[in-house]
Amino acid sequence: MLTFYHTPLSVNSRRVWVALLEKGLTFEVVEMNLGGDQFKPEFLAMNPFHHIPVLADDGFSVIESFAILDYLEAKYPTPALLPSDPIALANVRMVEMVTLNELNPAMTPLFKEMMGFGAESPEAVEQAKQKIDGVLKFYADKLGEGDFFGGDQLTLADIVAGTFSPWFEKLGISMANYPTLQAWTARLVARPAWQATQPTEEMVAAFRERMKARMAKG
């Protein structure tokens, strides 16, 4: 039995959650309260680094979202979320790693401002937006005219990059110059797996208030 330990607002968790749903797997969901659940002995036995997500599968624990995605693809290969064509596979892996190494850190100062966790300098915000624009250009190039990064097949690249895409407009990143990416985002958010895992505004607001209270105590 698969058991998925996560929190709904985590992008790292959400990419695994979407993959589980897209593969049609049966799994138990354990929602973690990161105010302390991650430090309980039973969780630390699975992940000594006390972060989510974690996937437990019949006594075997997998940590780190990218490792979990690879594990799911290897053990449950149908439906496939990786293409077999070498070029398509390389594109998928490049999009995954660019999302992790370039997009994720660039979005951090914008998330911080949006959530009210402190103001960044105008220079830092502009630099972040320029870097994100560079990532979007890269995405558009790799997507081409296809429906997904693997052509007509949903892939891990779509899941990894696509769980960020609904945040772009909220963070002041215009998609107007990228019509193919706008269409790609619309295709993704229409899928049941995206709708089932999309955080609500109430969740975001509650998280914001919890974090502000924690910062005020700190």
Features:
single chain; 218 residues; alpha+beta; Glutaredoxin; Glutathione S-transferase Yfyf (Class Pi), Chain A, domain 2; four-stranded mixed beta sheet; 55% helix; globular
Could you please describe the fold and organization of this structure?
With 218 residues, the protein is an alpha+beta fold. The protein has two domains: 2-75, Glutaredoxin; 86-197, Up-down Bundle (Glutathione S-transferase Yfyf (Class Pi), Chain A, domain 2), CATH 1.20.1050.10. It contains nine helices and four strands; from the N terminus they run βαβαββααααααα. It has helices at residues 11-22, 41-44, 65-75, 86-114, 122-143, 156-162, 179-189, 192-197, 201-217, and strands at residues 2-6, 27-31, 54-57, 60-63. Strands 2-1-3-4 form a four-stranded mixed β-sheet, with helices on one face. β3 (54-57) and β4 (60-63) form a beta hairpin. α1 (11-22) packs parallel to α3. The longest helix is centred in the middle third of the chain and has 29 residues, at 86-114. It is globular and about 45 Å long. It starts with a strand and ends with a helix. The relative contact order is 0.13. The mean pLDDT is 90.
